[in-house]
Amino acid sequence: MTTPTIELKPSASPLSAAERDAILVAPGFGRHFTDHMVTIRWTEGRGWHDGQLVPYGPLSLDPANMTLHYAQEIFEGLKAYRQPDGSVATFRPEKNATRFQASARRLGMPELPVETFIEACDVLVRQDAAWVPAHGGEESLYLRPFMIATEVGLGVKPANEYLFLVIASPAGAYFPGGVRPVSIWLSEDRVRAVPGGVGDAKTGGNYAASLLAQAEAAAKGCEQVCYLDAVEHRWVEELGGMNLYFVYGDRIVTPGLTGSILEGVTRDSLLTVARDLGYTAEEGRVSVEQWQRDAENGSLTEVFACGTAAVITPVGTVKRESAEWRQSGGEPGEVTLKLRSALLDVQRGITPDRHGWMHRLG
């Protein structure tokens, strides 16, 4: 694989410090974007080339661009955190880089070298470092690397040209008023992904497939939708954009990777964090019947979802067509809050980085 250099072409008119600071007071999530982006092209026979940092701006696409018709598109999400000494560090970017490669393989796209993925993120964060919120809260700079096909044509085949980009958006605390349990709708007729499909790739099609069920969940008064396996419609898999964990006292279980579940970076990290804290943490199978039964008899003490955006989200109310129940009395559980705090403390540089997860930019 070729590893292109990234040429710096910064904006001559970035947002003023006053305008930027006003945004950082309450950035929300994915609503505002930094001054720059990184682009790298791939062409068949030439490989990766023309890496550039340029002003953030629109893309120009031909109506016959193959991504618009055949959805050759993948993306990632990771965060940069301000550290106590004022430096900036990203959380486990190599894990996102290797997952990006796996997604590319599944969709017939070229694999970006891990070191190029990390360098592209580093270049953007260094250039737009003033956009990384101050240390002290849960705020961060969210990075969105993604790749699309750029070949023009309507033939159904892998494209011969691609564009990789990284953009960044300041992100506020996911729960501005404190950690709040979410309500879950169990979708027993619609599925997110099937064995042998693209459920373990981070591609937009998976999220598009979840939108109808998400709307149905909202109509039922729920904020998130949980999917079951596509074969038996019995085994719990994941939410539309987050993995799930089940807490049985000192034992913590997350559904095992079946090929239709996304291998979340936060999911993987929490297996390690939980063991560090003395819990038994494992992958396994949890049926929807077991979930309801164990919640009602009290042996299932907590349930939480996890992902890059929210870190850890407690589950409060669960609904299905035939029943409804509450977890932890509808309040955040002790284990959930302990794990959340432990992971955030590593990301924000408050506790020692025992596993070398933080990638410091200086």
Automatic annotation (TrEMBL):
Enzyme class: transferase
Name by which UniProt lists this protein: Branched-chain-amino-acid aminotransferase
GO MF annotation list: branched-chain-amino-acid transaminase activity
Stored CDD domains: BCAT_beta_family
EC number: 2.6.1.42
GO biological process per UniProt: isoleucine biosynthetic process; L-leucine biosynthetic process; L-valine biosynthetic process
Reaction(s) catalysed by this chain's protein: L-valine + 2-oxoglutarate = 3-methyl-2-oxobutanoate + L-glutamate; L-leucine + 2-oxoglutarate = 4-methyl-2-oxopentanoate + L-glutamate; L-isoleucine + 2-oxoglutarate = (S)-3-methyl-2-oxopentanoate + L-glutamate
Keywords: Amino-acid biosynthesis, Aminotransferase, Branched-chain amino acid biosynthesis, Pyridoxal phosphate, Transferase
Coiled-coil residues: none
Pfam families: Aminotran_4 (PF01063)
Cofactor(s) needed by this chain: pyridoxal 5'-phosphate
UniProt-listed PROSITE patterns: AA_TRANSFER_CLASS_4 (PS00770)
